[in-house]
């Protein structure tokens, strides 16, 4: 998952983040949203705003005390919003369903390969037994 964040404070000071631009307000150096919604990626903010609304995202950020957990929460929110834009019907569930289908197809392929290996082993054993039997027949002559 690739989420574009804005860690460049000089850049943040010179231009408002996508969230503040959208709200038409001044982006302050302590803007909680600037880190997650750089001005260079307004689509990311549009996706999140369309699905969650800015006020709800701010409430979520305020409810999470750890900076690391806030980053994770925002990654999840941004990912969900992007998935919903790409697939308005299924969103993240569509991604999960696709992954489950791939896992199921891979398991079926693995099972098929295991059967082929078992067959080859059985074939080799039978061939070796037949060769031993034939050698025994020739030595008894
Ligand atoms: Zn801002």
Q: Layout of helices and strands, plus pairs?
A:
Blueprint: H1 9-14, H2 18-23, H3 42-52, H4 54-63, H5 67-86, H6 92-139
The protein binds zinc ion.
Task: Describe the structure using short key phrases.
mainly alpha, 72% helix, 141 residues, binds zinc ion
Order of helices and strands: HHHHHH
Helix content: over 70%
Report the sheet-strand fraction: under 5%
Catalogue the ligands: zinc ion
Low-confidence stretches: 8-13
Q: Separation of termini?
A: 73 Å
What's the count of strands?
0
The averaged pLDDT comes out at 90
Largest sheet: none
Structural class comes to mainly alpha
**What is the molecular shape?**
rod-shaped
Give the radius of gyration. 29 Å
Please report the number of helical segments.
6
In short:
This protein has 141 residues and is mainly α.
How would you sum up this structure, described in words?
The chain is mostly helical and 141 residues long. It has helices at residues 9-14, 18-23, 42-52, 54-63, 67-86, 92-139. The longest helix has 48 residues, at 92-139. The relative contact order is 0.08. Mean pLDDT is 90; it is low at 8-13. The structure holds zinc ion. Zinc ion is lined by residues 16-17, 19-20, 27, 31, 33-34. Residues 15-117 form the LOB domain. It holds the Pfam family LOB. This is LOB domain-containing protein 7.
């Amino acid at each position: 998952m690739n989420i574009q964040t804005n860690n460049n404070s000089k850049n943040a000071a010179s231009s408002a983040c996508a969230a503040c631009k959208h709200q038409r307000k001044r982006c302050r150096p302590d803007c909680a949203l600037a880190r997650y919604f750089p001005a260079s990626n307004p689509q990311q903010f549009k996706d999140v705003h369309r699905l969650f609304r800015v006020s709800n995202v701010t409430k979520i950020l305020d409810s999470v005390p750890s900076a690391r957990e806030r980053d994770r929460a925002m990654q999840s929110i941004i990912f969900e919003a992007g998935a919903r834009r790409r697939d308005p019907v299924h969103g993240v569930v569509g991604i999960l369903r696709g992954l489950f289908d791939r896992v199921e197809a891979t398991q079926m392929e693995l099972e098929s390969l295991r059967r082929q290996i078992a067959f080859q082993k059985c074939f080799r054993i039978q061939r070796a037994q037949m060769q031993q039997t034939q050698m025994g027949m020739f030595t008894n002559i």
